[in-house]
């Protein structure tokens, strides 16, 4: 069928401001045309849905929770954006995407509520502005991200910008990256500064280093967040730049050949590295590298990057301007970073929840042209970085940003909460982080006057999958649920003490926040107020919040907040059972498709209560440094009780201990009634050798037990709302 489309907005199709990452104009036109033909065949019923699903994902088109509309994610290498590209997003969001462009923690922009028949128009609009959505979703190499201050950071080894662009151009459509079991995320950094070096969280992390006058990279592999965070392992401390592209190609070949394909929740590269060990993985990559046929692009792409370099539009300023008031002083202190180039500064722009309207996008384009260089860069915390601002123009720049509603201080800090879209649009979302951010704002504004809190980082994900990177925040939260009297209440799991960058040099794998407890959504703001009050009272001068939280320890922090976890029945406290701003809408856990629904029995509730207790005990024992056997015993007990609670929903009560695992596999895991990855935690934990559960594996076992219990809660919540269907 031929569905009518919206007219193209004036001004979307402009001459390109720079070479396109996607390829030549004619080539991309043909590719989009082929996508459009396939789309029409799908709409006519001539292409199976499963086949078209993978096809559209590889073109950056992702399904939303709402029927009939989709999200399109652009692929913006290193988060680079020109004024013309900002204006292109303004035009296309107005025409096809609900009027909001959303900045992501992967330095992309995604737009929502696009009708499927309109997706080729959006792709064409992106292409006309030298952008693409190709391979922004799907089991391929995702956006290549980088330190947003690359090229201007005071202590960088060298600017990774040209190398990042070369990586992005080389890996796009690379045949070795087309048959992966899951997505693959690379990143680069010019500096070891934790705020900007996120290599520990990525499949591949490259940090600029110099040795004997030669440029190269410290290379780590196998990192990732998701439900259970894993810190990347060091592959080499010096990879010469000429080996950059062939080594990445060899890594992809090994991942494609040996990574998990059938069980998607175990298909990220971090699981392959973890299963093999870094030595075996390194040997396999070096062997693959030795057999690669020479590709001239390994060298040519490294020399073809000049059009991507940004330049200032004004000469350097002499001195920082004096603040006109306290707001100016706070903004200059928290949002401005001096560049290594004298007379220039980089400005971090606070973008609330990462959302920009068309008017703001056009206004930002004008601000760039008036005050700064020819590009801006998206930061990993949903901010924007404007570089090459002459220091004497800083307050004039701020005035321009303020007029757009983007001039607030504490960018990336307290009150600038990082959130994913959550259940607003995502099928996997349990809760809506944006609603929580709005709910907390009053408490955050009330405590934001103390300079010691300015850098406090709060990240909120709508589910355990960590799109908002809650593991590495001072205060991290992810969506959860709890059911009382058949009514489900929105909750958030609270993590404290995550390290910026996710790295811990002295204790690898310990750079992530510790789970403390589960809070009703309506009480998270009060929890933050209590935590910050205690921090201000107790922390030694100069001690960051995250370090204080680690020093204080989980038992004391949990005791501070325990009373907030109490959940009265819905008849007593109905406000705790709805999300902020949605008092007229019952909260429901709706995730994915094909969920089983049924009645919850009393035995299941009791087993869940026991599972909670054992999971809490496992965490407490781990924090206290108890013997590994005691920690493992508690974690396995939590797994067992949660599994039994789930079996009770299938009418299986009081199974023999030796039968629980097989019954769980048959009735829940193989039947698709539990998310595969979470179910695998239980199956793996009940078969691994006790001697394996030590060190970082013991930590992950405890985290996995907690997540398994939380998934059991979520399933019970869905089953107790039988009218809800995913």
Concise overview:
This protein has 726 residues and is α+β, with helices and mostly antiparallel strands. The chain contains 21 helices and 20 strands.
Please, could you describe this protein's structure?
The chain is α+β, with helices and mostly antiparallel strands and 726 residues long. It has 5 domains: 25-128, Sulfite Reductase Hemoprotein, domain 2 (Alpha-Beta Complex), CATH 3.90.480.20; 145-305, Sulfite Reductase Hemoprotein, domain 1 (2-Layer Sandwich); 331-403, Sulfite Reductase Hemoprotein,Domain 2 (Sulfite Reductase Hemoprotein, domain 2), CATH 3.90.480.10; 413-590, Sulfite Reductase Hemoprotein, domain 1; 593-726, Four Helix Bundle (Hemerythrin (Met), subunit A), CATH 1.20.120. The strands form 4 sheets. A 5-stranded antiparallel β-sheet has the order 1-2-5-4-13. The chain has a 5-stranded antiparallel β-sheet with strand order 3-14-15-12-11. A 5-stranded mixed β-sheet has the order 6-7-8-9-10. Helix 13 links the parallel strand 16 (418-419) and strand 17. The longest helix has 25 residues, at 695-719. It is globular, with a radius of gyration of 25 Å.
